[in-house]
Automatic annotation (TrEMBL), chains A, B:
Residues 240-385 form the Thiolase C-terminal domain. Gene3D superfamilies: 3.40.47.10. Residues 4-223 form the Thiolase N-terminal domain. The lineage of its organism: Archaea, Candidatus Micrarchaeota, Candidatus Mancarchaeum. InterPro entries: Thiolase (IPR002155), Thiolase-like (IPR016039), Thiolase_C_2 (IPR055140), Thiolase_N (IPR020616). One of its GO terms (biological process) is isoprenoid biosynthetic process. SUPFAM superfamilies: Thiolase-like (SSF53901). This is Acetyl-CoA C-acyltransferase. Keywords: Acyltransferase, Isoprene biosynthesis, Transferase. One of its GO terms (molecular function) is acyltransferase activity, transferring groups other than amino-acyl groups.
Length: 387, 387
């Protein structure tokens, strides 16, 4: 398989984008990535779109063809990839395989979700489809409820506290404040989180990522061609994905996401690195407890030790490891299909030294961790600065 | 890239499967394909699921993880691929790329659609998402309406008649009658088609494929490993895909599907064959006019000459070329995400000589043609009998 590099990235402002349609968001991110790569729409020879629920949220399926049409690509193979909240990370990996295989040479991976055209309750019901409709949703549980179960068990087994979970949100809002693309630009305190409305005990409103609109795009080429497009190609040195039961209750352990552990192990092995080599990571903090589990599943901390470390500031900007410098899903926002691609865009900026106002010093190796459902899917990608 | 072979296939009965859930259909097709390949669920190392509208039709997204869970695969990378009615063909091609690249060794491509849990009107609205929501559906047109426009123009430009279109349905029902998996087992006459209820002038009820439930599955491996699993491996000698505008009105010509012409040309070139080398083809007859256009787009007939040839019986079983021996979408049924995989399953059976009661003599090369929306996506795959 060929070595693959990212040579262009683009992002929209995340948030409640009542000013923009699905097509508008696609244009905003897609064109930015063309400009960044110094390419035109006619240069792209395949398109992978990450999107979860356009059918339910906008009554538009066939979003692969829609994006190819909106960006006026040249009749290229285009498709939508769906894996709930890991749709973006999955699209990234499929685009990577397409280039690595030799099948395509200049591939776009674009993530998109337009979520605010429906009510919050309709969006929440739509997102519920990431879990098991028959054996979870029909019994009345929502996604905050599933993660609340994981949080309670993590608290029980490891002594994790609500204040430690709150510290994840505080850190991620602080990072988002420095990111012009973020949904939220609001510094919050642990006290703010603790006093926010209870959603699913022990998760409060500020423990939950928001419902956002947004799109993110990147362009991959064979590493041998990368210097034609950029002085700082970013190499994909590992890309792995794993699955687990759809229903949370069928798992061995709900204080950890097994699919993420498996994917991380494979990605580290491909990239020939160990967790401590990672300088900067974007992880899937759909709820604050999810970031704590991610730190442990990715091997950054031993089981039961991440919550205290986060609370102590070890994962803040330029800490022991800088986590969710974009603001994460919590602060930057979570347009689900776009999230996995946005994570990679942020890592590209960090590795290039272009993360204005939130740059991690000497970032050489970055990682993205994107989870679908309550952990039924996980994708881990490892990026490094090219030579 | 590695040469890839299909070593196992499985299919459910298509139809109004009120007896079976989404999960039940997946099991039925998936287990049949394991048995056919002499593999167990633990042998599979990646899963590609073709599905269009599970979110709207069953409130279940994340169908990649659901299928991996239902078939008890081993935490493998699993994902859903969506391209409207070409979701199955697209999943096939992505699975092919995954094996050809060297990324995965034993890959399942499974198509599934459960459509009858909602009303026909809700299903029709859901299918409308294959077109342009803002610029077609919101203006009131349905999918039969879009294909009716194509039919009218084809009649105007080439003198195609309603009786010639009807002959497609008559042929495909005759083939379906010989296929135990088909939705319909009912011989019909041209007169029956002509007298059936008008849906969108000139398309009548019997010009339209039905709303069906069903699933289809196949397993691919590197061709070098194929003999471990089967005496008659089927080689994928060409696989290509193309896109076009989402909206029909933006096309240069609506009497032909440009994406299909582009995909066919690439697939023939990869396979180093010409159209006349194809013995058996499964084409996308969502409406009878679509099969006529397919015959022309695939180069089997010159533009404007296919309708008469079909009417004259040239594409019947063991005719000049045998088309839609399964019964096609019209006779075998059209569970949209399953269709593209079912087409490949039928071709595998034909090339192996296992198409009981509807076998094409000396079938050596077969083709599948799967279209999404009104032609915004097309996938063409070419299969041949291995040595």
């Amino acid at each position: 398989m060929r070595k693959v590099a990212i040579v262009g990235v683009g992002l929209t402002k995340f948030g409640e984008r009542y000013d923009a349609s699905l097509r508008n968001l696609v244009s905003e991110a897609g064109i930015a990535s063309f400009q960044d790569a110094g390419m035109s729409n006619k240069d792209i020879d395949a398109l992978y779109v990450g999107n979860m629920a356009s059918g339910r949220l906008t009554e538009q399926e066939h979003v692969g063809a829609l994006v190819a049409d909106e960006l006026a690509l040249s009749n290229v193979p285009a498709l939508k990839v769906e894996n709930a909240c890991a749709s973006g990370g999955t699209a990234f990996r499929q685009a990577y395989i397409a280039v690595a295989s030799g099948m395509h040479d200049r591939v776009m991976a674009l993530g998109i979700e337009k979520m605010t055209d429906v009510s919050t309750s309709e969006a929440t019901t739509g997102l519920g489809g990431a879990g098991d409709k028959s054996w979870e949703l029909d019994d009345g549980i929502t996604f905050p409820g599933l993660y609340a179960l994981m949080a309670r068990r993590h608290m029980h087994d490891y002594g994790t506290t609500e204040e430690q979970m709150a510290s994840v949100a505080v850190k991620n809002h602080a990072n988002a404040y420095k990111n012009k693309y973020a949904h939220f630009h609001k510094i919050i305190s642990i006290d703010d989180v603790m006093k926010s409305k209870m959603i699913a005990d022990p998760l409060k409103l500020y423990d939950c990522s928001p419902i956002s609109d947004g799109s993110a795009s990147l362009i991959m080429v064979p590493a041998d061609d990368a210097k034609k497009y950029t002085d700082t190609p970013i190499i994909i040195s590992g890309s792995a994905q794993a699955s687990d039961t759809l229903r949370l209750a069928d798992r061995d352990d709900i204080t950890s996401i097994k699919a993420a552990r498996i994917a991380a192990e494979k990605a580290y092995s491909q990239a020939r690195i160990k967790p401590s080599d990672v300088n900067v990571a974007e992880v899937h903090d759909c709820f604050t407890i999810a970031e704590i589990m991610a730190m442990e599943d990715l091997g950054f901390y031993k089981k039961g030790e991440a919550a205290k470390a986060i609370f102590d500031g070890e994962t803040g900007l330029n800490g022991r490891i800088s986590v969710n410098t974009s603001g994460g899903l919590k602060g930057c926002g979570h347009p689900v299909g776009a999230t996995g691609i946005k994570q990679a865009v942020e890592i590209v900026w960090q590795l290039r030294g272009e993360a204005e106002g939130r740059q991690v010093s000497n970032a050489m190796i970055g990682l993205t961790h994107n989870v679908g459902g309550s952990g039924s899917t996980a994708v881990v990608n490892i990026l490094k600065r090219g030579d």
